[in-house]
Amino acid sequence: MIKPRLVLAALLAVAAPVAAQDMLIIAHRGASAERPEHTLAAYELAIDQGADYIEPDLVVTKDLVLVSRHENELSGTTDVASREEFEDRRRDKTIDGQKMAGWFAEDFTLAELRTLRTKERIPSLRPANARFDGLYQVPTLAEIVKLVRAKEAAAGRRIGLYPELKHPEFLLQEAGIDMVDLLLRDLRELGITAADPVFVQSFEVGPLQRLKQRSDFKLVQLVAPGEGPADEPAMRYAEMVTPTGLAEIAKYADAVGANIAMVLNPDGSPTALVADAKSAGLAVHAWAVRPENTFLPPMLQSGTDPKAKGCGDVTLAQMLAKAGVAGVFSDGPLKRRRCP
Asked: Taking 90 as the threshold, does the pLDDT of residue 248 lie above it?
């Protein structure tokens, strides 16, 4: 039997060294391994750590303000469940075919949302992040852009935005809210154009197609194993990443944002996705590299503690670079990182 670490060593030796720095480093929800995700503190730390892009997931308030949360359900990342004044806002909703109970951003005005404080979403794995619970507000897209511009001026380099539209079809059907309209409105008012470093991403197809018709921003079709776009129930992502499917994606998108399991085989060797995407004229951005053992394949883990961090995330990024990936979403720093 060939040992996994021998397989890993062979894979890393098959090509000339390719550093993670050769890829775009996209700060996945900010520096989310070290600060509560989707806070200005997480974005600022990611920029300080050298990220090329920061990635805000966008949801919308009742008064049509784009704000950054991983999901429109708020109890996982804010203290809303402990706020008696909002107990009557608890709702049951079906989002993308799944029933959920909780508090939803689209039922709160921005002023109401401002009274909430953020918290770590996975404190059992990231207990150090929980030290920052209660310190930060939910940021608006406008505030994120203001932070980026301030940091650009201080650092003397460009910093990109990589927003994701969360559940746009649900919001369109449930509340008549068109996130494409809101995003284009905000980007226009903020003076952001397609000449700026911006990618817009979505797991859905229709919003990206409409953005293609109405703007020149770079667009990214997100894909995941075993699923399909919520707005196209007959489609499966597995079919969309075949050569035929990728040719269709290339009609409206510039890149595919793929789960790492679709880019690398279990032994770490590359799948056909990157080569097929390049043949269709598409780049591949892989998500998401995370430093904790629980998120890493066994061959890259350090010890047995699920929370433990080593250099497995850097090694995984190097494997993705060797596979030809043009960008990688990362929860932690990959640039200027010293690893054996």
From this structure: yes
Token pair of 287 as six digits: 């998500």
Q: Look up the domain containing 169 and give its range.
A: 4-61+153-330
* Three-class secondary structure of residue 163 per DSSP: coil
Is the pLDDT confidence value at 168 over 70? yes
CATH number for the domain harbouring residue 321: 3.20.20.190
Is 296 part of any domain? yes
User: pLDDT for 33-48, tens place per residue?
Assistant: 999 999 999 999 999 9
CA pair distance 39, 44, nearest whole angstrom: 9
Which are the catalytic amino acids? Answer: 28, 70
- 225, part of any domain: yes
Please report whether residue 210 resides in a domain.
yes
- 340 pLDDT band, cuts 50/70/90, is low
Place of tokens 């043949």: 279
Residue 224 lies in a domain: yes
- Does residue 68 contact residue 144 with C-beta atoms inside 8 Å? yes
